[in-house]
Amino acid sequence: MIEFIRGYIDYVNPEYIVVENNGIGYLIYTPNPFVFSKNDKDIITIYTYQHVREDVLALYGFKTREERALFMKLLNVSGIGPKGGLAILASGQPQQVVAAIENEDETFLVKFPGVGKKTARQIILDLKGKLTDLLSYTDIDLFSDDYEVETKTPASSTALEEAVEALKVLGFAERELNKVVPKLIGEVMTTDQYIKKALQMLLK
Question: Region (Domain III) spans which residues (predicted)?
Answer without folding.
Answer: 156-204
